Amino acid sequence: MQGSHRPLRFTNISNTVCKLTGAPGVSYVAGDDGHQVGRAADRIVGHQPVVLIPNATASAGPFLSSAPRKSDCQQVAVRGLRVYPPDSYRSAYLPLPEFTCKPPQSRSYLKVGPILPGPNNSGV
Q1: Measured in Å, how far apart are the chain's first and last C-alpha atoms?
Q2: Rounded distance, CA 76 to CA 103, Å?
Q3: For the stretch 4-32, what's the b/e string if a residue is b when 16 or more beta carbons lie within 10 angstroms of its beta carbon?
Q4: Other Cβ atoms closer than 10 A to 111
Q5: Alpha carbons 90 and 99: distance in angstroms, whole number
Q6: 122 lies in a domain?
Q7: CATH number assigned to the domain comprising residue 12
Q8: Where is the DUF4232 domain (predicted)?
């Protein structure tokens, strides 16, 4: 499957220490209404919490699948990503226009690794 790894960065902009544990929620979104395309990313978990002092950054590495060269692929244009930090119900929208396959509801073409210290973690 074709795709790319791009780090998702989380920066502590508060004046107090915060802790992030696990992997963020990530999904493709499309349309003016921002509806979700396919299932959310499969999360790879099992790492220790990351403690962020003020202004520190941690990151997680999602694998973003582009439309593979398969005859059974129904290509769909997506506008970006909806990202939920671990243990949060508030999401952020990241514009990232591209094409992906519209998977069946039982499958995701996205994977995301755990949040790790540092700004450039891009592997899953």
Answers
A1: 14
A2: 10
A3: eebbbebebeeeeebebebbbbbbbbbee
A4: 19
A5: 25
A6: no
A7: 2.60.40
A8: 3-114
Taking only the tens place, the pLDDT of each residue in 25-82 is 999 999 999 999 888 888 887 778 999 999 999 999 877 665 555 556 778 889 999 9
Amino acid at 72: D
Domain containing 81 equals: 3-115
AA identity, residue 42: D
On whether residue 123 sits in a domain, the answer given is no
Nearby residues of 49 by Cβ (< 8 Å), 6 or more positions away? 19, 20, 21
Residue 83 tokens read as 């990202």
CB atoms within 10 A of CB 102: 16
pLDDT in tens, 92-104: 999 988 888 776 6
